[in-house]
Write a structure and sequence with these properties.
48% strand; Beta-propeller_rpt_TECPR; single chain; four-stranded antiparallel β-sheet; globular; Methylamine Dehydrogenase, Chain H; mainly beta
Length: 324
């Protein structure tokens, strides 16, 4: 039985992704696979975003490294020991130290790192960025956290929410939910004003133009229509969804391949998968990267010459995020 997002306003009886229809676009260079779904209108509002062009990782050698899309590999941008790296948008990249959880921010136009937060222990936290802001989800436990917005200098933050468990950001906006099984809320952009936009989902993803949700039993992908609590079904069963400036991606339930959403309900492009499968994917403004499930190598999907996966790191990485 399908369990679409509550408040979706649509019905959907498909239980799995279909592979019955294919079409060719871009003069035969790309094959798009149409996933079985209900075909209805999409109402996302396009937005122009400052590029967050590439990938930052915590390499096996330590610190933080930034991938150069021009073909010269990785450049070390931080040598200090780093436990985790956070980001997502063009505002900057955040590195957290392994022992004391100090958070250090590097802005796109700066070569230096500035300490912006030092939560006391025990604490649970998550940092995420859009192109215009840095957010911190912080609390004494994973289920008791508040959302804070960085004020732009020093270690000054403003609390903008009550208790949330998870947050999702992208240039379409800031979203959060109170528990793993709770409704999802949208931040209004000012004060501490939030509004419910949908019901429980397995996970959510944000791009430059929309919010997407994978329903609780992972049998359907839905797109938020932009107002109220209405959602549109755009695809079938998936293990996970990933969003960023380059768009929405999903790993197919039947074979684990990565698919890119083409903007029309039911239309998806099959990108296949790198050797070893896909553990996770990271979406930047102009590319998608995947960490394989077997050896923790990092691959970049290249769309030209018929498309394919290119190895960008043969060593395991601790974490990876989109970064400017």
């Amino acid at each position: 039985m399908r369990l679409p997002l509550p408040h979706s306003g649509v019905s959907d009886t498909n239980t799995e992704v279909g592979m019955s229809t294919t079409r060719t676009v871009l003069s035969g260079l790309v094959t798009a696979t149409v996933l079985s779904t209900v075909v209805v209108a999409v109402h996302a509002t396009p937005a122009q975003a400052v590029p967050a062009p590439t990938l930052c990782v915590v390499p096996s050698t330590g610190g933080v490294a930034r991938f150069n899309l021009g073909g010269s590999g990785f450049t070390q941008i931080r040598t200090t020991a780093t436990a985790t790296v956070y980001g997502g948008g063009g505002y900057g990249v955040v590195a957290v130290n392994p022992s004391v959880p100090e958070a250090w921010l590097k802005r796109p136009t700066s070569s230096t790192w500035t300490m912006v937060a030092r939560p006391g222990l025990p604490a649970a936290w998550d940092y995420q960025t859009t192109d215009t802001a840095l957010y911190l989800l912080l609390g004494p436990s994973p289920t008791q956290k508040t959302v804070r917005r960085y004020n732009g200098s020093g270690s000054s933050w403003t609390t903008i929410s009550g208790q949330f468990r998870t947050m999702y950001t992208g240039n379409y906006g800031l979203f959060a939910r109170q528990s793993s099984a709770g409704d999802i809320y949208r931040y209004s952009g000012s004060g501490s004003s939030w509004s419910v936009v949908g019901g429980p989902g397995y996970s959510f993803a944000v791009t430059n133009t929309a919010l997407y949700g994978l329903n609780p039993d992972r049998t359907g992908i839905f797109q938020y229509n932009g107002s109220g609590t209405a959602w549109t079904n755009i695809g079938g069963g998936a293990w996970a969804i990933y969003g960023g400036g380059h768009g929405l991606f999903a790993t197919l339930k039947t074979n684990g391949n990565l698919f890119r959403y083409l903007g029309t309900p039911g239309a998806w492009e099959d990108l296949g998968q790198p050797p070893g499968g896909i553990r996770s994917a990271t979406v930047t403004n102009n590319a998608v990267f995947a960490e394989d499930a077997t050896f923790s190598r990092v691959f970049l999907y290249e769309a030209f010459d018929g498309g394919g996966w290119a190895t960008v790191s043969t060593s395991p990485v601790g974490s990876m995020v989109a970064c400017p």
